[in-house]
Amino acid sequence: MTTTEQRAAPSEIAGPVVTSPQPLGIFGFPAGLLLIPARTGDEDAVRAALVSGRLPSNWPAGLDEVRRAYADPVGEGLASEVVARQHDTRNPIDRYNRWALSPDLENAATVRAGLPEPWRPLVDAVCYIVGLVHIPPADHPGCPPELRALLLTAAASAQLESDPACAYRLLHQASALVTFDSPVLAAVVLGNAAGVLLDTGGDTETACAELESALVELADTDLPAVRAELHGRLGGVMHEQLSMAGAPLTEAMNHYLDGLSLVSQDSAPYVWASLQLDLATAYLASPMVEATSQLRIGIATQSLRAARRVFTPQDHPGPWSMATLNLANSLVYAPSTHRKENLLEAVDLYEEILRSGVRNSNPAARARVLANQGNALAHLGYLDAAHARLIEARSIFEEDFDGEAIRAVREVLDAIARSRVADPDQAGFDAEMARASAQYARMPGADTAGRTSGMGVHAAPTESPARVPAAPPRDAQRRAKVTVLPRDGSPA
């Protein structure tokens, strides 16, 4: 009787055997670009599990490098090891996989020629994804559906900025191609399409339906970062809609919490930090009238501190600035028995933003930071420093004809002026400042998505476009041409 292991050798002689569907695009880079050969029954079982979005419990020895790629979300360590080791590359599938892990290892044309004809455009897709070429490969109708879907997502990524409507159509076409053969891949791509629709001001109802459909299909998969990202997207839409309706944000918070239950700072740092920031924004946006208000502010503060552990002004200037500003504002406006310590920390946080220069390109945004810092300095009794910051902020608001912001700043300046003339007792001055701060805290603070967290605190906009499958995170060894909503790495 001939075993599956005994059949492996003839397959290498006759040519490589690649069974469709392959798990292309389902998992992150670099694993999502690798092929699973059909040499043994064990290898085929691995392929079937991965196509279903699940990590196999048993890996045959012949797939050790593939296994390690799936265990390494970035793949840099494995790629370096591949370069350092000498390999027997008689099998074209193994040769392709090793090349995909480290494209400098071998000539792409040689690797391409070794693959079966229908799979050769995969090499072209990888070359585009890792930045070896600048034009996405064309769709090949004769290719397997999952490879065509990958080619279409690459084409969509090239259209994201110039023609997002075209990118959305291409992603929908890609999802439809694999609905039957690879429903998990179809769901991942559909989630990407929904993200593009949201990022470009498209139909919100359609986008939500697509996000919910994707979440249902991915419910039993080992794709926690993708699922967490979808929860974050849905939470953001609901946050905006509920805020506009003046309704409680409970449903949005539940999506953020569901997302946080799936990922950690280590497993998907950007997704995790984004969800922490969104959750904090929702907590701060809720009316501070309940007995649990102080507890919610405390949770929001913890979430903002968590987000700042991931976001940096160098790599993530937008989210970092938003988390830092929200944290500072929450320290100013939240009731606390450590009032002075909170105000001092808030002043330092505002100064971090000003020194970073992140908001220099937006004078109005910089003016808000100046005004917030001036308000905190006034509370601390540093009236000269507060006056200087507030005057600078008012000047910028006047140039923008922002009447409400001007009035809010004037309230604080008037309180400072009266204190200097009348020299009131501390209690009287504190009461005056409290009234002025209340006026300033009512300044609208909506982000680009229309959400507001109240208290002069701004909600964090979603900066990144939808994740296109099988693309490397932005900080990977090679910059991908496919734009991703990383959620397993960090954004641009």
In words, what does this structure look like?
This protein has 492 residues and is an all-alpha fold. Residues 1-14 and 444-492 have low confidence and may be disordered. It has helices at residues 4-14, 41-51, 64-71, 76-84, 92-101, 108-114, 121-129, 145-159, 164-177, 183-199, 204-217, 224-245, 250-260, 269-285, 293-310, 317-333, 339-356, 363-380, 383-399, 403-422, 426-441. The longest helix has 22 residues, at 224-245. The chain contains 21 helices and no strands. It has a domain at 4-144. The chain is elongated, with a radius of gyration of 27 Å.
Radius of gyration: 27 Å
The level of helicity is 55-70%
Low-confidence sequence ranges: 1-14, 444-492
Number of helices: 21
What spatial form do the alpha-carbon principal axes imply?
elongated
- Classify the secondary structure makeup into a structural class: mainly alpha
- Terminal CA distance reads 56 Å
Task: Spell out the key features of this protein.
mainly alpha; disordered N terminus; 492 residues
What's this model, at a glance?
The chain has 492 residues and is an all-alpha fold.
Fold topology:
Layout: H1 4-14, H2 41-51, H3 64-71, H4 76-84, H5 92-101, H6 108-114, H7 121-129, H8 145-159, H9 164-177, H10 183-199, H11 204-217, H12 224-245, H13 250-260, H14 269-285, H15 293-310, H16 317-333, H17 339-356, H18 363-380, H19 383-399, H20 403-422, H21 426-441
